[in-house]
Amino acid sequence: MVRTPWLLATLVFAALMLLVMMGPFEVLIPFLIKDKLGGGPDDHAMVMAAFGIGAALGSLGMASMRMPRHYLTVMNLLWGVGCLPLIVIGLATEVWMIVVASFVLGVMFSAPMVIWGTLLQRRVPPHMLGRVASLDFFISVSLMPVSMALAGPVSDLIGVRTTFLIAGIVPGIVAAVAIVWARLPEDELAHPLRDD
User: Fold this and answer.
1) Other C-beta atoms lying within 10 Å of the C-beta of residue 129
2) Which helix (H) or strand (E) holds 189?
3) CA–CA separation, 5 vs 10, rounded Å?
4) Which terminus of the chain has a smaller tally of CB atoms within 10 A, N or C?
């Protein structure tokens, strides 16, 4: 992994993204709906359903398109910029705003997963695929419990809105750093995933 910059950069970025955004999304939204907006379990169910529907549509949409020429850049930017709806969630004054933002978050979170799955199958040597997939899964889930544990104390310290603001902005910055540091545009042009 260390000798493969595109893999290292993407996995480190993904770990940091999940650390920053997963706790607020999973832990703070129910409190935001209940305490700030006067909503209840039905409202939270709508938010989660919107995320799931967005995720399904995002995956189907990306799967029906040609692989982007700049697949690494597109993938990382979709994940990074895709966290911006968390800002809307933090600033929401109505539940429907959280529902719409969750739908967009679902689209932007799942569409790049199609690129990632294709990328692993095409660029990782077959004899390493199991190990890389295991590492990918470990990275994906390793910091999620930490994020969930930190969400409450951090929001108590700096406020719910500020926590969502950070969760929405930081992933985009980290994505840009990963793209530049690992020279992803040059790498993806040297290793195209489409045949033209």
Assistant:
1) 13
2) helix 184-190
3) 8
4) C
DSSP state for residue 66 in the 8-state scheme: P
In the CATH hierarchy, which fold is given to the domain comprising 5-190? Growth Hormone; Chain: A; (1.20.1250)
What are the DSSP calls for 56-106, one per residue? HHHHHHHHTSPPPTTHHHHHHHHHHHTTTHHHHHHH-SSHHHHHHHHHHHH
- For residue 55, give the amino acid letter: A
CA distance linking residue 81 with residue 109, whole number of Å: 10
Token reading at 103: 């739908």
Q: Where are the domains of the chain?
A: 5-190
Single pTM value for the model: 0.92
Q: What is the pLDDT along the chain (196 residues), one digit of tens a residue?
A: 888 999 999 999 999 999 999 999 999 999 999 999 999 999 999 999 999 999 999 999 999 999 999 999 999 999 999 999 999 999 999 999 999 999 999 999 999 999 999 999 999 999 999 999 998 888 878 899 999 999 999 999 999 999 999 999 999 999 999 999 999 999 999 998 875 5
User: CB within 8 A of 189, min separation 6: which ones?
Assistant: 69, 70
Instruction: Give the total residue count for the chain.
Output: 196
Q: Which of 41, 16, 23 is nearest to 153 (CA)?
A: 23
Rounded to 10 degrees, what is the CA torsion of 155, 158, 161, 166? -90
Unique residue bearing structure tokens 């985009």 = 172
